[in-house]
Structures are given as structure tokens and as C-alpha cells.
User: Fold this.
Amino acid sequence: LYGDQVLRDTANILKASFRDTDIIGRIVGDEFMILIKNIESENIIAHKVSRVLRYINTVHNITASVGIAIYPKDGDTFEELYHNADLAMYKAKSQRKNRFVFYDRSISD
Assistant:
């Protein structure tokens, strides 16, 4: 099925875009999570995510929305980080297609 191929391609581009020490997993359906340790700058994350979004859009002509939360700024626990990344993802979806948003506290207000 085409949907399965898109998921495999997405997983492969995520693996190719991030380090071997980063943890990539599929949460449910078409949602993936990436746990990145010791990142030097949000710009590095932004560059990697932009590259993935461009690839998916170019190869499959589909869009994706990405929410990003950073430890410890955006939460101290997995649950807080997941929740805040989810809020950021929905903010990205509401703004326009093929976009990513970093969590900030104004999203929760």
C-alpha cells in the first residue's frame, strides 16, 4: 500500500537526518517522535526538520506538521515534553501546511 511506503520512507529519511544516538519511533498512525540528546542549537533542529519536510513534500507530494519541545526549557518529564510538542504540532497545523513550530508558553494560554 502507498500509505505504508510513505511511512517507511519517512522513517528512513528521519534515520538519515538524525544521529545514531537519537531515538526515532513511530507513536501511532502517521505520528513519529524523535528524542535528541545534547543538541547545540535550535537552528540545528530547525534545519533537520526543514530538510525532512521538503523531502516528504517533494517525493510524496504530501505535507506534514511538526511540533518541537525542548528539555528542560519546555518540560521536565516525558509527559510534559510530549504534551507540549503535541500542542506545538497542532499550532503548526493551524498555521499552514508543511510547517514546524517550537513550543512556547503562549501556545498553552
